[in-house]
Amino acid sequence: MRENLDTFKGVIDTTLRDGQQSPLLFDTYTYRFGIEGKMAILDGLVKLGVRNIEFFSPIVSTSEGADFAILKDYIKSKNPDVRLLAHCRTHPKDIEQALTAGFDGLNLYMGMSPQSQNHNHGLGIAEITHRVRDTVEQLRASHPDLYIRFSGEDCFRTSLPDVYKVYDEIADLVDTFGMPDTVGIATPELVRKRIRALKRRYPGVDLECHFHNDRGYSLINAVTAVLNGASYIDTSVWGLAERSGITSVTGLLFNLFQEDPAYCEGYNLELCYPLNAIMGSILNAQVPPTEPVSVTNRTHTAGVHQGAVLKNAAVYEAMDLGRFGVTKNQLLLGPLSGWNLVYYYLREFKGYDLSKEQAQQITTDFKMRAGEIQRNRDPESVLMQVLEHYQLEKLPTEDTTGRIENI
């Protein structure tokens, strides 16, 4: 049993906040999720078992505020225990509008790194500390039961002494401290050290982590964070977020399950792939090949791989993706296919009676014409043209008259 199983409280999904900041929404001409798309995403998240969902503060735009007014009731009708969180600057206007909208909690943030101090808001660490302390004190006094998280934005480029100066002032006022890797510079070793340092200093405060993928480390950093005692990990569907994204919600659950299934208690894991497919239908795009929970992760194109998978998929498929909703694999006929797949395809799908030796010769001829395979001419068409030079008989068809199908 893992040491920090009881520490991890789950994901905080930010698909409808950071996810809408993804360049992929521009690449797909989507720009923002409409209300129906948001409902579909939320339905998938709630059914999966996500219990914390982050939104924009209504101050971002009137349309986001109007959408939240609808979505709030929609989510609560699905599961009243889902906590709805507003991503807010440490600014009175953001906070006021979020409270008026009826959020269950506020995710406050303010940049504390030298880059933020010098080139963003222009405040020094003493001024940041004063503003954060005053804001959180007033908020807690007026809303004693409100969930409050505070994050020092760009935490990994902020020195620990500066983090402590701010966090020490509010440790008894917040529920959670955020540790965001806003610009994606963190490594697993740095994550481990930071989490342990913050947990030692603030043992009574939960710790939330938000990892960007600028270095391709968001997923491994998130797993490292959980294994070292993080309470929450920010995620999104497909890892959609600013720039190259953050941690994928299904990718994280998939990997945590490999560490210890107990990390995933309360999640309906078989709904992971359907959630990814929902996003694909909204964006009219394929589930990314970098997403572990995908049919792509069970698709084989090389002849050696295909031949082995036809005998036993375990040769090239180590983990059970069926538990996560991926219920099939794919063997793609193409320039790299070997005779095993050609033999299987022609017998099982096309009904031809051929020997293995014939399949080997047909495969050689097929590969010689691989250059003909184009966008408007698929591999199957090329193979069938090759087949015209062979005198193959069809296998006897099964007589189905009088048979009752049990569907």
TrEMBL record:
The keyword rRNA processing does not apply. It holds the Pfam family HMGL-like. One of its GO terms (molecular function) is homocitrate synthase activity. Coiled coil: none annotated. SUPFAM superfamilies: Aldolase. Residues 9-273 form the Pyruvate carboxyltransferase domain. Keywords: Manganese, Pyruvate, Transferase. It comes from the Bacteria. GO terms for biological process: lysine biosynthetic process via aminoadipic acid. PROSITE patterns: AIPM_HOMOCIT_SYNTH_2, PYR_CT. InterPro entries: 2-IPM_HCS-like, AIPM/Hcit_synth_CS, Aldolase_TIM, LeuA/HCS_post-cat, PYR_CT. This is Pyruvate carboxyltransferase. It comes from Candidatus Roizmanbacteria bacterium CG10_big_fil_rev_8_21_14_0_10_39_6.
